[in-house]
Amino acid sequence: MLQEFRDFIAKGNVMDMAVGIIIGAAFTAIVTSLVGDLINPFIALFTGGIDFSGWFYALDGNAYASVDTAKEAGASVLAIGNFVMAVINFLIIAFVVFMLVKTVNRIKDAAEKQEEAAPVEEAPKGPSELDILMEIRDALKK
After folding, report:
1. Which of 54, 57, 70, 106 pairs with 14 at a CA distance of 20 to 30 A?
2. Is the pLDDT of residue 106 over 90?
3. Cβ–Cβ < 8 Å for 80, 56
């Protein structure tokens, strides 16, 4: 059973998945920084300084300075800004993945076209079966 588990772990699919998860986690940190540090300031600039992460409604009717203070006070909070930011993050990630897949597909297509364009060398033709049989016949006649 241990050998079977070791074989399962050593298979390429499991290792590829592990590498993908690790790279995905690193990529998530990059996209989070991209959105939080670069894109949100531009969005705030065009929306008159609105910071989506601070957009919330406290359901108890009181006014709070931030989402955190409302949660500390025990109020139920609709954190609409966090949802908007999650949607923006998703759209950015989806667009970046789309661009990566598009680039990889373009590279694959170019590689396939180069393979098709390269002349395929044919193996040198040897004698046919009929030629060999005729040689054998002639050799037997002698």
Report:
1. 106
2. yes
3. yes
Q: What is the structure's pLDDT at 112? A: 85
- Name which of 80, 42, 45 is nearest 59 in CA terms: 80
- Positive or negative: CA dihedral 90, 94, 96, 100: positive
Residues spanned by the domain of 35: 1-50
Q: Token match 């955190």: residue?
A: 68
Q: Greatest CA span in the chain, whole angstroms?
A: 115
- Alpha helix positions (H), the chain: 2-10, 12-33, 40-46, 67-72, 80-117, 129-141
Q: Residue 120: pLDDT above 80?
A: no
Q: Please, is 142 exposed, middle or buried when counting C-beta atoms within 10 Å of its C-beta (0-12, 13-18, 19+)?
A: exposed
Rounded (5°) CA angle 25-30-36: 120
Same domain? For 35 and 86 the reply is: no
Residues 30 and 61 reside in one and the same domain? no
Same-domain pairing of 7 and 28: yes
Whether 35 contacts 41, CB under 8 Å: no
d(CA 75, CA 79): 12
